[in-house]
Amino acid sequence: MNFEQLWLTYVKKENNKEICGIRHIYADCDNPTATHGAEELLLALEVMTGSKPVLHKTPMGDDAEEKNAESAEIIDRIKLCIVPGMKAESYHIYENENWIMIEASDGKGILYGAFALIRQMQREKSLKGLNVFKEPAAPLRMLNHWDNMDGSIERGYSGNSFFFENNEIIVNERTKTYARLLASISINAVVINNVNVKDNATCLITDRYFDKLKELSESFAGYGIRLFLSLNYAAPMELDGLDSADPLQEDIKQWWREKMAEVFTKIPNLGGFLIKADSEGRPGPFTYGRNHADGANMLAEAAEPYGGLIIWRCFVYNCRQDWRDKKTDRARSGYDNFMPLDGEFKDNVILQIKNGPMDFQVREPVLPLFGGLKATNQMLEVQIAQEYTGQQRHVCYLIPMFKEIMDFHTYVAKEKDTVCDIVTGRTFGHTNCGMAAVANTGNDANWTGHDLAAANLYGFGRLAYEPELTAEEIASEWIDLTFGKDEEIKQILLFILINSRGIYEKYTSPLGIGWMVNPAHHYGPSVDGYEYDRWGTYHRADHLGMGVDRSDKGTGYAMLYNEPNASAYNHMETCPEELLLFFHHVPYTYRLKNGKTLIQHIYDTHFEGAAEAAQMRKQFETLKDRLPEKIYKRIDERLLHQEEHSKEWRDQINTYFYRKSGIMDELGREIY
């Protein structure tokens, strides 16, 4: 089949004497997931050494070859075993008398440990003295696919779906390889269909699709992944013609009880459901005068006997706002809708909360529900699909952003108060919590369209399991695994990845204002594209200044944070400058801490960003003879497009604000 193996592209390690002696793998664990770990080690070692080890499915002992004097210092075997008492999905890898031991809590831990050992070998790190112990930080580490059953993907930038085609479910070698890729980065849950559930997707909970879903679910289960489905809240009406979906109505409750019994029986390994309700036209409990706790709890009660989770999205806002209304603030909506319900949700409900209050912009503050909610299970939702960050045509490595979000102090407690602490359960002791990312994959040969966008997929999984990793460590690891141990390739790609988000931010939207994109498809500059519409995404620029007043004198949004964040955001002088225009309407002549006026900062950053985009491509061109030709050409074409497109962003933004303000660029550069 026409697809690549990404970071699981194993290559021969000619000079690695340590791994060439490994001849035996002992899998002392009768577990399908652990067996996949042993099989992956066999595959990797066969490619790396040219010789396939022998797999023993009995404890090391009777059939173990004795070591001779010559081999006493050579690592020649790997042992995998499950050790009771360890934390779920954890593993311990260590050298023991020239054996490599992988001990784990369960099959998932064995699988993750196997991939961790393979990473060590791929990167040509020494196995002598190896001693690595890892436990997962986030209990739930999930990808949300926005795939439609006709094969299209909402906000998909890497081809069509590999899960659906012509309203049918696909289970094949590609979906298996995808499960391998996700297991290698410790992803343990996948939602396969779009949160905007309509048409045939509503029927995923009917016998029309049970057989294929069971097959896919079992394939996922072998790699430690639980299948989740997005659910249509109005399914009782659309599937069986009921006249209501009122969550407090007894016949509706009974319908869902019967449906959950059927679905969980027919689809083993089903983890539960993701629901988008009362948002952007989707049905929900508001129709019946009920709240989100009513809706979520009704479904949770029906799913509870089967261990099912209900993941309820908090992306709920008034999408029919009047642009003339300066008091209604989309940024407040998540907080205003869900804070009053804190503590009212059942334990198998998790609120999935976007990282920011708007919609996956290149820069926005952390949503204050993190640090507001105390008695409710919470998940962080981020987006690796780059909807507003270049759509995988521009390189934008998002892991530095995710690190900033996770490290943000909410001040909800004296310690363990970061977003990471909250969604990993350290703050409140919740066990139903975690992280989710909107997926960036499709059926393109390289899975993510832009080869460098795969770093975001890889990085999200690694970060959710090990949030202590730095963005640079993750990028370095991904480059080694994907492109091999070439120091020049590594240094140039590291430079591009680590600087890419800052460069993209410079030539697009300044100081946290966001948007300024073409409506609907969200690609390319259109400063006023959303300024006079219903979506609540305004920049409020006039001839004196720009930005939205969210202080206590404006919409009051700044005051939703715990102190000292509220006071810092509330005043122009103390607000972090990277978020200044998100929180304040600022005069063009206002001087930033670097002494520049706001308008000069806009001019300078947009010229700098376009120049730096061109420099990225210039540096990449030096790798022409060091990368496979097709990979080089794919990346180079994207970087060329980014270089040209960044100029369009630069010129439209600078021209707009020059015409708005009437203030010249101090450096006299060409502005139209």
From TrEMBL:
Can you tell which superkingdom this protein's organism belongs to? Bacteria
Q: Which UniProt keywords apply?
A: Carbohydrate metabolism, Glycosidase, Hydrolase, Polysaccharide degradation, Xylan degradation
Q: Where is the Glycosyl hydrolase family 67 C-terminal domain?
A: 448-669
UniProt domain Glycosyl hydrolase family 67 catalytic: residue ranges: 121-447
Which ranges form a coiled coil?
none
**Pfam families, per database record:** Glyco_hydro_67C (PF07477), Glyco_hydro_67M (PF07488)
Q: Does the keyword S-adenosyl-L-methionine apply?
A: no
Q: Does the keyword Lipoprotein apply?
A: no
- Report the sequence similarity comment from the record: Belongs to the glycosyl hydrolase 67 family.
Q: What is this protein called?
A: Alpha-glucuronidase
